[in-house]
Amino acid sequence: MDERGFSLMEVLIASVLAAVVAAGTLASFVASARITGNYNASTMAEAGGISMQIVEKFRDNVAADDTTFSTSAGGGWQTWTPASTATSGLSITNRGANAKYRVDPVANCDGAGGTCYKVTVQTCWDGTC
Questions:
Q1: Cα separation of 57 and 62, whole Å?
Q2: How confident is the model at residue 17 (pLDDT cuts 50, 70, 90)?
């Protein structure tokens, strides 16, 4: 009897073993992607909330009919540091978050010769801006 090579049973056992190892490795990659995805989603939601605080500030000024827009318009980027309401160390306010905004006049935007204002907001963290 010639005993060179592998029997069918040895090949099947090796294949099952390789499949189990591959499945475990794949599961760890999937878990890592889920954790990273949730982290990014919460970070973006927090950044959106910070940007909304600035927009709300200007909306309140419009309701009060004050001159905030005309005095802020054309002044370039203004820095606004959000108050930290963080409950975890992963919060962007704990990682140096800041926001920049600028107010630009838009002439004759209502068709009646009036001036409107465009507010642009940029929220940054981890030294990205």
A1: 9
A2: very high
Q: Which residue has the tokens 């920049």?
A: 100
| 41 vs 92: CA distance, rounded Å | 12
Of the candidates 129, 69, 57, the one whose C-alpha atom is nearest the C-alpha of residue 100 is 129
Classified as helix, coil or strand, 125 is: coil
Greatest CA separation for the chain: 101
Contact present, 97 and 124 (Cβ < 8 Å): yes
pLDDT single digits (tens) 19-39: 999 998 888 888 777 766 666
Amino acid present at 84: S
**How far is the C-alpha of 88 from the C-alpha of 83, rounded, in Å?**
14
